[in-house]
Amino acid sequence: MKSERINCEQTDGSAKAHEHALPGEAGDLNSNLRLIRIFNHYRHDWMNDIQLLFGYVKLKKYDKLEDLMEKIKGRVLQESCLSKLGHADLIVYLLSFQAEVKDMLLEIEMEREIHINELPLDGDGMFGLLKAAIEAFKSNSLHHGDGEHRLTVELADKNGRLEIHMRYQGTIKRELLSEELERAVSASALKVRWDKRLLDEHRAEVHIEIPYST
To answer: Where are the alpha helices (DSSP H) in 84-189?
Structure first.
């Protein structure tokens, strides 16, 4: 009973902090809460992997260890690449999306590190376009209580351009998605080449190429 009372008091204190915070303080508080949510999300994921690892060892299921270790290795690589993207707003947005959005799983894939701040392109424009495209998938995904909704975003620096390839699996409102993607590209100041393939009501792909400035 004591622990329950402490939790309630802590929750009330947090609510009061929101209620009485000055405008600037409220912004700082929201940023801090977001940081805590991001930290808890990744801590939870890593704890799951560690518990699974110990479980396999305890049960002597050594044949499953190699696949699990490869999975962990892949996660370490992708999280490292994401944290070194070189654009703070983009990094925070992607990490926050992964931590806070429960209806759609977002995965980021890169074969090697990409540093947006070192590329000859408009980093803010690239971030705005990518964010608009991700939000278009999020707002037009349909949830019926079953099935997985997954958006995989692959970033690649090659042949004098930044390539963004997006693959979606899950039920989607195809026509509305197409319209929102059209608006996102039209609103962008970037000169891009892009193509969308709405394969069916459960799969969609978008490929965007941003040429580097010369």
So the answer is: 88-100, 123-140, 174-187
**CATH number for the segment(s) 103-214:** 3.30.565.10
Tell me how far CA of residue 36 lies from CA of 90, 147, 182, 194, in angstroms.
18, 29, 35, 36
Q: How many CB atoms lie within 10 A of CB 65?
A: 13
Among 168, 40, 169, 142, residue whose Cα is nearest residue 99: 40
**pLDDT by residue for the chain (214 residues), tens digit each?**
333 333 333 334 444 444 444 445 555 667 667 666 766 766 667 777 778 888 888 888 888 888 888 887 877 888 889 999 999 999 999 988 988 888 899 999 999 999 999 999 999 999 999 999 999 999 999 876 556 899 999 999 998 999 999 999 999 999 999 999 999 999 999 999 999 987 778 899 999 999 999 7
Q: Convert 46-112 into a string of H (helix), E (strand) and C (coil).
A: HHHHHHHHHHHHHCCCHHHHHHHHHHHHHHHHHHHHHHCCCCHHHHHHHHHHHHHCCCCEEEEEECC
| Distance separating alpha carbons of residues 70 and 211, to the nearest angstrom | 34
The ranges assigned to domains in the chain are 1-83, 103-214
